[in-house]
Amino acid sequence: MDRQIEAYAKRLKLSWIREHYHEVEESDPKEYLLRLFEKEVANREERKINLLLNQAQLPKTGGSPYQWEHIQIPQGIEREQVLYGDFISEKENLIFYGGVGTGKTYLTTLLSLNAINRFGSCVKFFTVAGLVNKLIEANQNCTLPKFMKQLEKLDLLVLDELGYIPLHKEGAELLFQVISMCYESKSLVITTNLQFGQWNHVFGDPILTEAVIDRLIHHSHLLVFKGDSFRYKESLLHN
Ligand SMILES: Nc1ncnc2c1ncn2[C@@H]1O[C@H](COP(=O)(O)OP(=O)(O)OP(=O)(O)O)[C@@H](O)[C@H]1O
Ligand SMILES: [Mg+2]
What we know:
This protein is of the alpha/beta class. It folds into two domains: 2-55; 71-238, 3-Layer(aba) Sandwich (Rossmann fold). Helix content is 53%, strand content 13%. The protein is built from eleven helices and six strands. A six-stranded mixed sheet has the order 1-6-2-5-4-3. The protein is globular and about 70 Å long. The model has no long low-confidence stretch (mean pLDDT 94). InterPro entries: AAA+_ATPase (IPR003593), DNAC/IstB-like (IPR028350), IstB (IPR047661), IstB_ATP-bd (IPR002611), P-loop_NTPase (IPR027417). Keywords: ATP-binding, Nucleotide-binding. It holds the Pfam family IstB_IS21. Belongs to the IS21/IS1162 putative ATP-binding protein family. This is IS21-like element helper ATPase IstB.
């Protein structure tokens, strides 16, 4: 009988039940069935979240509480809506602008974790340089449409470090394609050390730059990160 139960559970893709049904102790059959279903659903949720966390490829976080005093948050969005990823359901974008070590990547990572855990959002973190390399590679291998389809499935795309490295023409155009594809269909979080006026240095072409900024700032919130580098402060503490 065990074998048959396991075979049916496998066929029905009830993997928790298949492995653990005999561990549940309930004399009432309804209670027993309820327990099994509850466990199966909880297990599925957990696996889904783990899969989303793996796919997102977020940087590691230290776990220290996030300090907000140095961040200017514009009207129209609250701290909690940023941190807990509420802007994602509205398909809004966030742009984090500020100097090195001011917590842009850290906040991006925290809000991504929250969005995955709270809403089961599909998130992917890239550095701009990393994404552009992938796009160029995909373009050369004729796998660009497939790669774009994967990006289309996301709820939130993170582009970290815009401005750190200038892009070549092909890279800039491919990045523009991604930003256009995201427009009004998903959320972007972009971190940058450059004001909009300087984005031309990244994209290398004023018309393309204008087109990028135009798409981005529609439905966007610009958060400005001020102050000194936390890395610097931390290194002072440890010396
Ligand atoms: N608001 C914050 N509260 C607490 N710790 C912070 C905060 N911001 C940054 N830190 C600490 O400083 C480190 C560096 O921050 P982070 O990598 O987010 O900076 P960044 O703005 O992305 O810098 P860069 O532009 O150089 O990439 C973090 O890993 C974290 O340990
Ligand atoms: Mg960073």
